[in-house]
What does this fold into?
Amino acid sequence: MEVSGLALFNGDKYVDKLYPDKLLIFKMLYENVKMGDYEASLENNQHVVLETIKSNVDYRITNSMTNPVIKIKVQMSAFVNETVSSVEYHTKSDIEKLERLLEKDLTEKGQQMIKQFKEQEIDPLGIADRARSQTRGWKSDKWEQLYPNAPVQINFTLDIIESGISY
It folds into this structure.
C-alpha cells in the first residue's frame, strides 16, 4: 500500500490534494511529529534528505476577534541522511548554514500551503479551533470574515544533530 496524498475537503466537497512531498510539512504544522523524511531541493542544485527525529509545533493567535495575527513556531531535530551538493558540510558553520537554508525552504513551503488553504477557503490545520480555544466570546462568522486576511507567520527552527552525508 502506498499513500498518494492527502485529500482536502471543504465540508463534504473535495477541493484539492496534498502530494507526498508536502505531507511532512503539513503534519509538522498540524501536530508534534516523532519520525518522518523530508527531501529538499535547495539553491545551486543542492539536494538534501532529512530524517526528522522529532518536531514540536506551537500556535500563538492574538486578537482573534478583531485583527488576528497567527504565529506558528516549529522546532525540529533531524539527521541529514544524504546530500548531493558541490558544497561540503564538515564544519559547525557549514552545518549551521545548511540549517538556515532548510529552515528557509520549510518556511516558504509552509507559507505557500497556508496561502493555498486560504484561497480554497479550507482550514485543514484547524487554526479556527485553536483560535476558538484561546478566545472568550468566540464568533465563528466573525472569524470567517477576518481569517482570510489574517497574517500567518511561520518560523521553522532546525537542529541537525548528526549527519551521515554522502557525496
Q: What stands out?
A: The beta strands are 6-10, 13-18, 36-42, 46-62, 69-84, 152-163. Residues 92-119 form the longest helix (28 residues). The helical segments are 20-30, 92-119, 127-133, 140-146. The mean pLDDT is 89.
